[in-house]
Amino acid sequence: MKLLQSIILSIAVIISASDRNDHKKELIMSQTEWAIALHGGAGTISRDIPDTLKEQYYSGLNEALEVGEAVLRDGGTALDAVEQVVRNLEDNPLFNAGKGSVFTSEGKHELDAAIMDGSTLTAGALTGLTTVKNPVSLARIVMEESRHIFFSGEGAEEFANQTNVERVENDYFHTERRYQQWQRTQEDTRLNRSSDIDDKNHKYGTVGAVAMDRKGNLAAATSTGGMTNKQFGRVGDVPIIGSGTFANHVAAISATGWGEQIMRNVSANTIANYMEFNNESLENAMSFVLTERLDPGDAGFIGVDAAGNISMQMNTAGMYRASLNSHGHRVVRIWVDE
Q1: Exposed / middle / buried, residue 170 (Cβ in 10 Å: 0-12, 13-18, 19+)
Q2: Angle CA(98)–CA(60)–CA(166) in degrees, nearest 5?
Q3: Exposure of 184 by Cβ count < 10 A (0-12 exposed, 13-18 middle, 19+ buried)?
């Protein structure tokens, strides 16, 4: 009898161990191997935009998403993914970054960008670029090859001269749509009347990407042409590490919105800190900053955490955004209630 009981117990232990192993396999199978999210700006986005333009935006978001997917699916790094995605968005004239950047009050284009590696806390940032075709790539060179983090204006251009990044004339960034927008603002200023561009809901235009790769590393990158009709020397949140761009071992965050408000609250870093110090989820931390630290209409964020969870939230009417993970869960949206 004792022998029989011993055999039955041994079988039970083996079955139990097998069940645990199967459960472990299921957990491993269910884990997110990689994840990516991107944005193309937030603010008041009219639902009355022509269907053709709407489809161009959806197409542009999907194309950028596929660029990131290709990098991460093939085992590339989160850093490579966010750089390549942002480069793609910089080359798309629909978005206020790179080609298609807005005009300053002086009728020029001044570009900002930043990138950050969450695994090392290294970062690179630039402001006031005028001849660099893809600012995000120069930001990465700053991060990897310079002992500094942040270059501005003439210094940023001089640093670019020491690299092989592609250069362009300033009018490369010109698009008719942005020019007409600037002309309307100039006319409103001349006549001393309020401009719809001066409304904070029309100041927004930034592109960004966040990613987690197969090794669990996180990265974030952001790029912008700034604010329409901005004054000389104005710097927004994008290149301020911790404000518009941040990544560490907890989360990677990229912001878009009213730069001054995002900077006042050091928003991207606040989200990551709220998660770490309060043991909170990315979703809740992002919601906290949007509802308790910022005012309605101020900003939008995209983020990914160390488990591959993605959050894309805003307190504006809309945000051009998209995300995808290794499970094939794809989201491409513009308005809040899609």
Answers
A1: middle
A2: 30
A3: middle
How do 122-129 and 330-335 pair as beta strands? unpaired
Distance, in Å, from the CA atom of 84 to the CA atom of 68, rounded to the nearest integer, reads: 7
Strands 122-129, 111-117: pairing kind: antiparallel
Chain segment 134-184, per-residue pLDDT in tens = 999 999 999 999 999 999 999 999 999 999 999 999 999 988 888 677 677
Residue 22 has pLDDT above 80, yes or no: no
The reported pTM is 0.88
Q: Find the catalytic residue in 104, 127, 130, 206.
A: 206
Q: Both tokens of residue 163?
A: 């690299």
Domain extents in the chain = 1-30, 33-335
> From residue 272, how far is each of 138, 187, 248, 301, 321 by CA, in Å?
25, 42, 8, 12, 20
Please, what CATH class does the domain formed by 33-335 belong to? alpha beta
What are the distances in angstroms from CA 141 to CA 126, 149, 310? 11, 10, 27
Q: Which residue has the tokens 């904070």?
A: 200
Task: Give yes or no: 120 in active site.
Answer: no
